[in-house]
Amino acid sequence: MKIAIDAMGGDHAPQVVVEGVVEAVKRDVVRTDHLLLVGPEAPLRAALEAAGLPGVEILDAPEAIEMDASPATAIRAKPKSSIVLGMKAVREGRAQGFVSAGNTGAVVAIAQLILGRLDGVLRPGIAVPLPTNAGHPCIVLDVGANIYCKPIHMLQYAVMANEYCKANFGNSTPRIGLLNIGAEEGKGNPLIQEANELLRTADVSYQGFVEGQDITSGAVDVVICEGFVGNVILKVAEGLGAFLSSQVHAAFEEAPPTVEVKTAVAKAFQDLDYAEYGGAPLLGVAAPVLIGHGRSSPHAIMNMIRAALKTIECDVTRNITDRLNTGSAEKPVS
After folding, report:
1. DSSP assignment of 12-60, as one string?
2. pLDDT of the residue at 140
């Protein structure tokens, strides 16, 4: 098993990515022979040797796609970028999964172009785990891969999230809700109403409509929404977390807490930290692809590698294909 890692992905690449790889190896998350670092060979080799990891395989990729680049333009302009060559390594069997904290739009577009979609999947979706009061994450899908959603896409999201939740979080019967502006049957626009009718026919534990507060309450294990809405939710959640953290630190400066209080607050914020989850899988493409935050820390990179390994080991892509093509969801005819 090998994971291709985009060494040029992220706001502080490649240094942070190399540090994340080093942390992953030192903590026994992954073996060096299971890593394929994709980026400019000379500086990466020097950084790895300085960190005491000379044995990591490097795939030379002299180009990088900028974080703000247009995905369509980047694919044509940067054929030797770390994202393009990393995806090709997966397609050719040199690696079994790909992780990147780089340009999300580029990763989504290039994954579909080079790896292709799974049989039966119309639109891939990005599944992000968010913390809840129940002590387990709630998977929100989609958070930005597909902003022009159709009811059939939302049905397929439910099936894909169901398989991901079962395999990666050990939940045999994930409870799935459809995000709406209210729980009453008459609420919602035509897209939500049609998606609701389709989800009622799916072989999943569909709970009906849920509202925004249900994401963090733990009322359901999966929340399905269109990518535009999901991306707004994700950005609001990230911003709220940063705001609360700054407010608490300001309060602590005015009135220093006891050690016990400080420890408890630190634990609470650790549970809210995106770095603990590492990355979000792009469900629906033909191999495991995980996307991390642009400002991912070394700890986040390590956890993204950990999540990728688990996704590969659990064979989530095969499980999704099996479910979509054995009557578990409506198979599209076009």
Report:
1. TTTHHHHHHHHHHHHTTSS-GGGEEEEE-HHHHHHHHHHTT-TTSEEEE
2. 96
Report cis status (omega within 30 of 0) of the bond before 14.
Answer: yes
Residues 6 or more apart in contact with residue 195 via CB below 8 angstroms: 151, 154, 155, 178, 224
Torsion of CA 219, 299, 247, 264, to 10 degrees: 70
Which domains can be identified in the chain, with CATH numbers?
A: 3-121+284-319 (3.40.718.10), 125-273 (3.40.718.10)
Looking at residue 28, its amino acid is D
Q: Please name the residues in contact with 61: beta carbons below 8 A apart, sequence gap of 6 or more.
A: 7, 8, 38, 39, 40, 80, 81, 82, 84, 85, 86
Encode 76-117 in three state secondary structure.
HHCCCEHHHHHHHHHHCCCCCEEEECCCHHHHHHHHHHHHCE
Assign residue 327 a region (left: φ > 0; alpha: ψ between -120 and 50; beta: otherwise).
left
Whether this prediction's pTM lies above 0.85 is answered by: yes
β-bridge mates for residue 214, sequence order: none
279-283/125-130 β-pairing: antiparallel
The average confidence (pLDDT) of the chain is: 90
Contact 187, 209 (CB under 8 A): yes
Do the beta carbons of residue 215 and residue 143 sit within 8 Å?
no
Distance from C-alpha of 228 to C-alpha of 97, rounded to nearest angstrom: 26
With 80 as the cut, is the pLDDT of residue 228 above it?
yes
Q: Other C-beta atoms within 10 Å of 194: how many?
A: 16
Q: Where are the beta strands (DSSP E) in 83-226?
A: 97-100, 125-130, 138-141, 175-179, 205-210, 222-224
For residue 323 the two structure tokens come to: 């479910």
pLDDT digits (tens, 9 = 90+) for 32-65: 999 999 999 999 999 999 988 888 999 999 999 9
d(CA 177, CA 202): 12
